[in-house]
């Protein structure tokens, strides 16, 4: 396996660029503060997932999207997989947050910030001429989106945190648009309450072709990004144990050749060493006053007993305090 992990790092300080805000849902004073998401987040991984699923499961399969938040990620993958209404792939979006799931079930979504990855979904946006069509996909993504979503009016309930919106509104490019699922797909995208730790009890009658758990392992393990590290992080949490339990369950639930798709942010890959990590297994990063695990705990758990192999790498999303150009494996295949 090609190693892009910490063992290859020069531990030099890289100044962070302004962090992109991708938020379309911000929960405050809720059971957690981390339900941020957007449509078509991490496009390279979504496109590659679509390609691999079509190759490995040409007759269709079931996909379980955990940590789906209010379902923007689930809708995005659905729109790519079932392009031109092929309808072979069934997707369930699960999240453990009641509030995110309730919003998802209501089926109205917002797009509003030029800093978000999904701002291109407002074709008339003032900013649109400046959007860098890095993957040459904007036109096609807009088309896929319009196959499943249509514009709608503001509902009589709040979707986004009003204080957060107030700040973003100061931008001349701010433009809030509402979308809803088209009637013909409403029943095909299921957003349910579900915890990945309980995966064995969900859809117990079947194994599945893909499981997503993107940008959420850091929540399960209480892991911070290195530059976010604070003395409040609970270092008594045994991150390795939590990760291994989840990986074991994911392995059991997947069909052979099935995919496990993880996030592209630093916190899902680089783990701050907890009190259970031995000194020989950690590095101390002086600039941030924090020790990190030499081996990414999630990669180790996936490679253990030769059960998974990484099949797709992409550039880490910011913030990455170690190296901005670090590559992380976001798609793993069950051997
Ligand atoms: C930062 S959001 C990521 C949303 C989406 N996956 C994305 O990448 O845009 C993290 C979500 O993970 C959910 N979550 C955390 N732990 C979970 C678990 N064990 N099972 C299901 N959802 C979980 C949280 O409730 C939150 O909505």
Describe the structure.
- With 335 residues, this protein is of the alpha/beta class.
- The chain has a single domain (6-334), classed as 3-Layer(aba) Sandwich (Rossmann fold), CATH 3.40.50.
- It is 24% helix and 20% strand.
- It has nine helices and twelve strands.
- Strands 6-2-1-7-8-12-11 form a seven-stranded mixed beta sheet, with helices on both faces.
- Helix 1 (43-56) crosses helix 2 and helix 8 packs parallel to helix 9 (297-303).
- The two termini are 14 Å apart.
- Residues 1-23 and 28-32 have low confidence and may be disordered.
- S-adenosylmethionine (SAM) binds at residues 32, 34-37, 41, 66-67, 69, 73, 94-97, 100, 195-197, 214-216, 219-220, 263.
The CATH class is Alpha Beta
CATH homologous superfamily title: Vaccinia Virus protein VP39
Q: At the third CATH level, what is the topology name?
A: Rossmann fold
The assigned structural class equals alpha/beta
Over all CA atoms, what is the radius of gyration?
20 Å
**What proportion strand?**
15-25%
Helix residue percentage: 10-25%
Brief summary of the model shown:
The protein has 335 residues and is of the alpha/beta class. The protein has helices spanning 43-56, 72-81, 98-106, 138-148, 162-168, 183-186, 217-221, 239-253, 297-303, and strands at 62-66, 90-95, 108-111, 149-152, 177-181, 189-193, 208-213, 254-262, 282-285, 290-293, 308-315, 327-334.
């Amino acid at each position: 396996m090609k190693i892009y992990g910490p063992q290859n790092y020069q531990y030099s300080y890289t100044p962070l660029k302004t962090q992109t805000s991708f938020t379309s849902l911000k929960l405050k004073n809720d059971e957690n503060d981390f339900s941020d998401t957007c449509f078509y987040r991490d496009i390279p991984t979504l496109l590659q997932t679509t390609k691999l699923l079509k190759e490995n499961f040409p007759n269709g399969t079931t996909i379980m999207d955990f940590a789906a938040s209010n379902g923007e990620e689930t809708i995005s993958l659905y729109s790519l997989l079932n392009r031109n209404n092929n309808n072979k792939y069934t997707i369930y979006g699960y999240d453990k947050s009641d509030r995110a799931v309730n919003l998802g079930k209501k089926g109205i979504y917002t797009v509003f910030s030029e800093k978000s990855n999904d701002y291109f979904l407002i074709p008339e946006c003032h900013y649109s001429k400046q959007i860098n069509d890095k993957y040459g996909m904007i036109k096609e993504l807009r088309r896929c989106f319009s196959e499943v979503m249509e514009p709608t009016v503001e509902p009589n309930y709040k979707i986004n945190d009003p204080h957060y919106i107030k700040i973003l509104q100061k931008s001349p490019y701010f433009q809030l648009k509402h979308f809803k699922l088209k009637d013909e797909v409403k029943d095909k995208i299921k957003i349910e309450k579900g915890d990945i730790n309980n995966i064995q009890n969900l859809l117990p009658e079947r194994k599945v072709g893909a499981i997503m758990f993107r940008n959420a392992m850091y929540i399960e393990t209480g892991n911070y990004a290195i530059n976010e590290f604070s003395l409040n992080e609970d270092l008594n949490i045994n991150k390795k144990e939590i990760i291994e339990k989840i990986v074991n369950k994911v392995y059991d639930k997947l069909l052979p050749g099935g995919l496990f798709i993880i996030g592209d942010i630093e916190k899902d890959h680089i783990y701050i060493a907890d009190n259970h990590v031995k000194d020989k297994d950690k590095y101390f990063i002086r600039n941030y006053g924090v020790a990190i695990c030499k081996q990414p705990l999630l990669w180790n758990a996936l490679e253990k007993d030769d059960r998974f192999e990484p099949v797709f790498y992409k550039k880490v999303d910011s913030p990455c305090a170690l190296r901005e150009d670090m590559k992380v494996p976001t798609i793993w295949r069950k051997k």
